[in-house]
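User: Second chain of the day. Same drill as before.
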Amino acid sequence: MTTRTRVPALGAEGWFTPDADEPTLLGQQCTTCGTYAFPKAAYGCPNPACLGTEFHEVPLSRQGTVWSYTDARYQPPPPYVVPTAEHVPFAIAAVHLAAEGLVVMGQVVAGVSVDDLHVGQQVELVVDVLFSDDDVDHLIWKWKPVSGTGTGPDAGPGTEESN
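Assistant: Same format as last time:
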């Protein structure tokens, strides 16, 4: 039996914890104003009212609510790698992380289509294989619906529950 090496997909190094039992996205928090950023800011706080340039790396919330969603009917351009012989459409969700005040986009796990999603639905972060080559699995974060959830007090911006 061959052991497969698991690594973050190209460009996603340092964006999430790939081997944790409970994976998290890794963001930053400005030490001046407390604003969160994801992905990490190259230089300067993303808050236009702040001149801070120092940050702490912080794990972001593992659960959030669907703010918006769509599907990728057409194959994305390179550097995207088609994981199968032919492009299979997949769902993409913009997920509101209430504690951080961020909306983070990501693929939704295989088997979940836009017909299975709705705004305000609770989802959790998982790490999954984006594509494989040779003995390497290239990993990325994805969103997975939390069983038995729907809307609630943390339904995110733009929903009845948050207005």
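Residues 45 and 99 are 18 Å apart (CA to CA).

User: Great, on to the next one.
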